[in-house]
Amino acid sequence: MQYRPPPRTSTKREVPINSNDASLAAIVSGTWQGAFDRKHCGASPGLRHHAQTPRGHDPLITKAAHAPHNRSRRKVYPVFAVGASFVPGPGLRSMGICNISPPGRMSMSAGPDRHHAPAWQALAETLRGRLLLKGDPDYEQRRRVWNGAIDRHPLAIARCADAEDVRAVVRFASREQIPVTVRGGGHNVAGLAAQDDALMLDLGLMNRVEVDPASRTVRVEGGALWRDVDAATQPHGLATTGGFVSTTGIGGYTLGGGVGWLMRRCGLAIDNLIEADVVLTDGRDVVASEQKNGDLFWALRGGAGGLGVVTHFTYRLHAVGEVLAGVVFHPIDAAAGLLRVFRDVTSGVSNELTAMLVFTTAPPLPFLPPEVHGRRVIVLAYCWSGEATAGKRVCAPLADWGQPLGRHEGVMPYAAWQQTFDPTAPTGDHYYWTTSQFDALDDGLIESLLPHAIAPADPFSEVHVHHLGGAVAAIPAQSTAFSQREATFFINVIGRTANAERFDAVRAWVRALRAGLAPFARTGMQPNFTFEATDLATLGHSSATRARLDELRKHYDPNGLLISAPRA
After folding, report:
1. Which of 22, 59, 243, 343 to pair with 166, CA 20 to 30 A apart?
2. Are residues 329 and 434 in the same domain?
3. Range of the domain at 279
4. Cβ(424)–Cβ(462) under 8 Å?
5. Cross-strand partners of 300
C-alpha cells in the first residue's frame, strides 16, 4: 500500500474526515489559518463551531473515516517533500545542481572556492539525491529554515535520497575536512541545521514511513514530519508521541526529548524510541538500541545530536484513535484564577490528560465575539486520549471553569487535533524562544508571570504553561540523556513576530520574562525550546549528563565533524 500526502505547502489535514465533520475539519484544513492571517479581518465563512453554551450541552462529536485494514500485514508509506526531484540513479543531468555544458561536467562558478571542483563533481555524481551549491535557485529555498530570524549560508546542501547518500556525504566531508550540519524538518528554533560555511546534510527527501500494525511499531526515515507519521499510523488506530505542531520534523524533535499531547500517557518521544540506524562520522552504519551500542542509544535519547546522522528511527506505537480535545478561551483578567485551577486540577490527574494554558492574542475565530478579536486572552487547550465518557468527567473541572468567551471541543481523530495548532507556527516568521522548568506553580510565580505574559512586544508572541508528570516522570532520570523529566511544570515563552524590525523588542521581552521567572525555576532548559546556543551547551543538560555526552561525542566524533549540537 503506497501513500503520498498532498504537497507540503498545503496546510490541509492529511487524514480523511467524513462530510459530517465539517466543523473540526475546517479548523485543521486551513480556515483557522486564515483567521490567524495578519491580513484577515473577518470571520471565516464555512467554519462551523459551537459557541459557549449552557452546562450540559454535548460537545460536537466527530468520527474518523478509517479505511479497513489488515493488522497482520506490514504496510509501507513513502512520503515525498514538495518540489523534491527523486533521482533514480547518479548523473548530473538529473541533479539540477548547476548549468551543465557539456553533459557530465559541472559548472562551479557559484561553488565553494576553497575546495577543488572535481571533489564536488565526484560527490554530485555519487548521490542519488541532489547537491545544491550557492547560486543555485533551489539552494536559496533549502538554506532557509522554519525560523525566519535565521539567515545563514551553508557552503553547500546535499539532499540525500537514502542512507547510502548519507554515508557518501559524511565520508566526503570527513575527507575534505568540512564541518557538517544535519537538517531533518528544519524546525529547530535555533536553526542548528543551517550554519555558515558548513555542508548541510539535508534529509528532507528521506521521509518514508513503514508501519507494522502487528508489532505496533513504526520505522521512519529521518527527514519525515510528524504529520507524515500520523497519516500512516492513524488508519490503524495507532500513534506515538509527536510534537504539538505536526509540521515538526521527527529527527531533531526526538533527539532533544520530544514532548507532546500523548506524553503523559505514552512518555516522551525518546521513551518510545526502540532503535535508531546511525551513520557515524567515519562512514560506518550502526544500530543503536538497548541491546546494541547502548551508550550511543542513551545519548541519542535527549542528547540533542552531535553523535552521528540518524537515518531511521523505530518507535513503539500505542492504541490512539479518537481523542476528546478542545480549546476554551477566557478573558485575560481570569488568568490568575485559571492558573490556580490548572495547578490544582493537574495535581494527580489521570495520565490520559495532557493540557496547557496559552497566553495569546484572540484571532477572529467565528466562535469568539467580534469585540474579543485582537485582544489578549488566555486559552485552555487539552487532549484526553482515553475513553471519552470518562474524559468528560475528568476534564470538566478545567473545561467548565469560569465564564469562557467561547469554546471549540469534541471527539475527533488524534491526527486532526495534532494539526490544529499548525497555523500558529508559520514558516518564515521570526522566533525567539526560551523555556523554564518548575516544581510548582506557586502564587509568587503566577504574580511574576502575569505582567509580562499579558503585554508582549508583539501580539503574535505567546506563553505556554504545561504540566508534566505521568509517564514522563515514571522513567528514571539517569536512563536517558533528557535532564528535565522530574519537573512538574514547564513554561515556554514563544517570542514571534512577522516584522523583522520588531525582533529585538521581542527578544528583550522573552529575556525579561525568563528573568522574572528565574527565582522560581529549576536549573536547566529543554533543548528543543532553546534559541541561544550557549544556553543549549550549558543548561540543556545536567552537569553529569553533559559530562557524559561530551565524552561520548569525543568518542563518536573525535574530529568534531558534526556541529548540530554545540560543545561546552
Report:
1. 243
2. yes
3. 75-81+206-319+545-551
4. yes
5. none
Distance from C-alpha of 312 to C-alpha of 217, rounded to nearest angstrom: 13
Determine the Cα–Cα distance for residues 403 and 214; give it in Å rounded to an integer. Answer: 46
Candidates 520, 418, 506; CA nearest to 465 is 520
> Which residues, other chains included, contact 265 with Cβ-Cβ below 8 Å and sequence gap of 6+?
318, 351, 352, 354, 385, 386, 470, 471
Is 286 in the same domain as 190? no
CA dihedral sign of residues 428, 234, 319, 249: negative
Domain count of the fold of the chain: 3
CA distance 265 to 17: 25
**How far is CA 4 from its chain centroid?**
21
| Element at 95 (helix H, strand E) | none
Q: Which triple of cell numbers denotes residue 559?
A: 574530529
Strongest mean pLDDT among 41-50, 95-104, 534-543:
534-543
Q: Based on the domain organization, do 393 and 502 belong to the same domain?
A: yes
Q: Are residues 189 and 217 in the same domain?
A: no
pTM of the model: 0.82
Per the model's pLDDT, the better-predicted residue between 543 and 522 turns out to be 522
Which residue spans within 362-453 are E strands per DSSP? 376-384, 406-413, 430-438
Same domain flag for 312 and 345: no
Per-residue pLDDT of 274-327, as tens digits, reads 999 999 999 999 999 999 999 999 999 999 888 999 999 999 999 999 999 999
d(C-alpha 182, C-alpha 206), whole Å: 12
- Confidence at residue 2, expressed as pLDDT on a 0 to 100 scale: 32
